[in-house]
Amino acid sequence: MIPAFILQHAPALLLCVPMLGAFATPLLGRLGAGIRNAWALLAMLATLCVAGILTSEVLANGTLIYTFGAAAPSFAVPLDSGGIPIRIIFAVDAMGAFMALSASIVGTAVLLYSIASQKKNSGQDGYYGLLLLLTVGILGMVCTGDLFNFFVFLEINSLAGAALVAYRVDKGVAVEAGLKYAVLSTLGGLLVLFAIALLYGQYDALNIAMIASRMQFTLLDKVALVMLLVALAMKAGSVPMHFWTPDAYSMAPSAITAFLVVASQASLYGVFRVVFSLYGLALDCLTVGWIIIILGVLSMFVGVTMAIPQKDVKRLMAYHAVSQTGYMLLGVGVALAVLGNQDLLAAYGNIAMQGGIFHIINHAMYKGLLFLTAGAIFYRTGTRNLNRLGGLGHSMKWTMIFFIIGALAIAGIPPFNGFASKLMIYESVFLFNPLLSIIAMVVSILTLASFVKVFHSIFMGPALPEYAEVREAPLPMLIGMGILALMVILFGVFPQQVVDILVAPAAAALTDQGGYIASVLGGA
């Protein structure tokens, strides 16, 4: 039986638990590495439990509204003087809960993996504190119902991410990558802040639902929309604003890279929340939908073609992360393009939306798994250069198996999870425009070819003399990889159950702007 206090305050606890973990970690580090690591892991596990409780509550009872500072923080109509919500409000619908659960699962695997992977490094107090703070930023972005607080959590996400990218220093190369990430994140944050100022100046509100209920789609609204889409698409790693991704993903510790994928998806969530919940049918849905579709196609094609010639395995995977983001943009873009036509939305728009959203959690699992396998290889060999690797399948069998699972999933091969979400995208997008579906399938073929090359370069052939003494990765790293591999397999073997329980409610919540507004404003 879950205590009533936890049920009532789950949205606040979702942030308070990792925030407390983050600020207490450096203090507990003075008592010993073991105590610090146990505390950080406990904080992340508790966050996962809260995310699970919150998700079950939202799926059972609908959108959960939580008003900070109110006498009764969870109630249906969080309105203050004059019917305007002036307090900080979290509005956790099925889409937000879906994203929070996905982030918490990956975060748990990443933290467990880090216990072994960072054991030899200094500065671990800061590392674990920043990792938990990054978790706070991600979870805050996907739960808040307030634009300004979305900006605040976006900045927390960016600052913690930049510090973690630069964590290893690596003769200044990692610092350079972290600085690039910080500068571009700052520019993106300024665009978001300017857009919020334009909306606030017109509508005298920061609450997403309140602004949406008053939206007139004026020229200033259009300018704000462009600013928000550019900034958040850049943070999500979409082409042509993806240029920070290879450097940041390749230079960050592999565990952090796996979590940066989730941090990027929080910005992608921001794109979807803006176009569906904030603007909705006030948009020229067909035009904006096609803009998102074009960004998706460019991301898919440019990402995979840039990945193929790479020799650094993590840089190669970074470009593939860009490519996979394109599938999410494509599916959701098609749904937006037909949003105003209920017949087309019912025929294939909803399936396209579900496929794009399903691909978010699938990508977080298999791409996180692939980055963790790359980290295990670097941990044992000290190199990421494909030309200097070979024969590791003899000594790192479990890592090889996990790599195979991730590689087949990202290429869309059954029975792994990538196939399930890609098939939904292929079928629905084909009904919208057959050419787009063909491009998506070609990109998957090129992805498979790329990872066959990587597999052969790293694991096949005789063991190289310099790696004769190489052993398997430590147990905590294997457990972290195993958690994500298990999710990849389960989501691939039981896709319909995942869609019915998690994905379909998330898609329905995102497309129902009226329901979102009513849940926050009480029908006002």
Query: How would you spell out the order of helices and strands?
Result: HHHEEHHHHHHHHHHHHHHHHH
The number of helical runs is 20
Number of DSSP-assigned strands: 2
Sheet with most strands: strand arrangement = 1-2
Percent helix among the residues? over 70%
Q: What's the number of domains?
A: 2
Radius of gyration: 22 Å
Task: Indicate the structural class.
Answer: mainly alpha
Low-confidence stretches: 75-83
The average pLDDT value, as a whole number, equals 91
Tell me the β content. under 5%
Shape: globular
User: Biggest β-sheet: count, sense, barrel?
Assistant: 2 strands, antiparallel
How far is it from the N-terminal to the C-terminal residue, by CA? 35 Å
Q: Could you describe the 3D structure shown?
A:
75% of the residues lie in helices and 2% in strands. It has 524 residues and is mainly alpha-helical. The protein folds into 2 domains: 8-278, no CATH class; 284-493. Helix 5 (124-143) runs parallel beside helix 11, helix 10 (245-251) runs antiparallel to helix 11 and helix 12 (285-307) packs antiparallel against helix 13 (313-337). The two termini are 35 Å apart. The model is unreliable at 75-83 (pLDDT under 50).
